[in-house]
Amino acid sequence: MSKKQINLLIGKQRYPLTVSEEDEQAYRETERLINNTINKYINWYGGNADLNYENILSMALLELGYGYLQLKNQKEQE
């Protein structure tokens, strides 16, 4: 299993990772999913002075975590 260095940009932060070549595409897709969710909340609430970037990240994390649990519970019921 060959490893490689990649850099992911999540929100405003860059994360260097060492991943297997087989997993790189999944990490890239995850990066896009997270950033798309963050950007959705920025577009929805970007003008709201009560929400800072940390609030936006928290809302995106909540949405993604909830979606994960829904899929997990659905799979367990099959």
Beta fraction = 15-25%
Mean pLDDT: 93
Largest sheet: 2 strands, antiparallel
Distance between the termini: 32 Å
Write down the overall geometry.
flat
Order of helices and strands: EEHH
Low-confidence parts: none
Our count of helices gives: 2
Number of DSSP strand runs: 2
Secondary-structure-based class equals alpha+beta
Largest sheet strand order: 1-2
- Helical residues, percent: 55-70%
Radius of gyration: 15 Å
What does this protein structure show overall?
It is a single chain. With 78 residues, the protein is of the alpha+beta class. The chain contains 2 helices and 2 strands; from the N terminus they run ββαα. Helix 1 (24-45) packs across helix 2. The chain starts with a strand and ends with a helix. The model has no long low-confidence stretch (mean pLDDT 93).
List the helices and strands and how they pair.
Blueprint: E1 3-10, E2 13-20, H1 24-45, H2 53-77
Antiparallel strand pairs: 1-2
Quickly list its features.
2 strands, alpha+beta, 60% helix, two-stranded antiparallel ribbon
